[in-house]
Write a sequence for this structure.
């Protein structure tokens, strides 16, 4: 690890490209979901996590952790989704202060309708132009960065 405080020109270019990808890729995915099913990318993320959970419900705190969101952000997101009939909240019997976010039939239907187009877009933008070795390299690099971020978060 370098003690030099500045990035090299090459590192600066990579860093700026990384920032551009993390801004532009979600924007494209969001536009696709909006046009296809009037869902936002955060809507889709919540619906996916709930659809994969036992009984299609998760405690709000667990969902926030899975999404890596602040509790307040999730609460506002779920409130917006409740108004549209995609999810509902259910009190937690073991903890009067806690609640579950639950997937509705309408939410499941919207997710199932949106998922194929979303998967096609992700594949087209991220995977179709990479061969198997490049995908494995990308996976390894992303995991290494995430491991370092986890250490920094601890």
């Amino acid at each position: 690890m370098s003690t030099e405080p500045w990035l090299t020109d090459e590192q600066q270019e990579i860093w700026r490209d990384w920032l551009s990808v993390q801004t532009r890729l979600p924007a494209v995915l969001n536009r696709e979901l909006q046009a296809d099913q009037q869902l936002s990318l955060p809507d889709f993320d919540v619906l996916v996590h709930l659809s994969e959970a036992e009984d299609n419900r998760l405690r709000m705190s667990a969902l926030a952790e899975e999404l890596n969101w602040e509790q307040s952000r999730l609460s506002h997101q779920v409130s917006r989704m409740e108004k549209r009939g995609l999810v509902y909240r259910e009190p937690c019997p073991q903890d009067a202060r806690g609640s579950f976010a639950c997937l509705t039939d309408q939410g499941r239907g919207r997710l199932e309708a949106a998922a194929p187009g979303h998967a096609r877009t992700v594949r087209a933008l991220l995977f179709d132009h990479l061969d198997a070795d490049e995908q494995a390299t990308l996976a390894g690099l992303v995991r290494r960065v995430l491991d370092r971020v986890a250490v920094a978060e601890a």
